[in-house]
Amino acid sequence: MRFVFPPVRRSRNPLVRALSLVAGLALLGVLLVFGVVVLGVLVAGGLVFFAVRQWKLAAARANGAVGPQPQAARPKDPDVLEGEFVVIQQGRPVHHH
What we know:
Number of helices: 1
Order of helices and strands: H
Keywords: Membrane, Transmembrane, Transmembrane helix
Oligomer: single chain
Shape: elongated
Mean pLDDT: 85
Strand content: under 5%
Transmembrane segments: 20-52
């Protein structure tokens, strides 16, 4: 079974055609303006979030409360393997998390 839309009846009156065209363009304009407003709100929110984050980081640096060093800044010990390990002992069941 196939779903078929009923045929679109276009008015022959040129005034009705022009008004429907203007109404369609107005609706398109409203949607475009709404999209631009939403985009502006998202950009403004992102900028406020970024500014507050940078301000908090600058305040923490000024107070001497510097966070952990980045991974690249730490000296690497060649005898240390990095990763998560589980020690398995004989005779005990192993419980994985």
